[in-house]
User: What shape does this take?
Amino acid sequence: MKRYKEIILITILSFIYIFNNQAFSQNIENFSDTDTIVFYTVQNPPTFINGDTALLNFLTRNLKWPNSEIDVEGTVYISFIVEKDGSLTNINILRGIQNKFDQEAIRVIKLMPKWIAGEQKGKKVRVRYNLPIKFINVEK
Assistant: This one.
């Protein structure tokens, strides 16, 4: 089961790049107040401390299957802002599957340590980050 979870999370990590690279480009010189602007695509995107493998390990260790009365599988699409100091704010569900699963995804994001902040033109900036978290019941 652990191996299956790793495969699922590797698939999730591949979607991270798709979500974060589809948005439009923004030029930092066009904005007067970079403290409030949220970027969608930057030259150096934010990263989980020690990279994608560490993110995968973190999710594998901390994600728990919620107790649910109904048999649910699917993907929770979650979004958050990586702040200039690496903290995560404005955590919300873009598309959920069921409340307990949505809340579990939020819980795990809130447990995360600070990230390495994104940069645009050498300046740390706030960046919107989207992360799909897939729930598959392997014990069917």
Q: What stands out?
A: The longest helix spans residues 2-21.
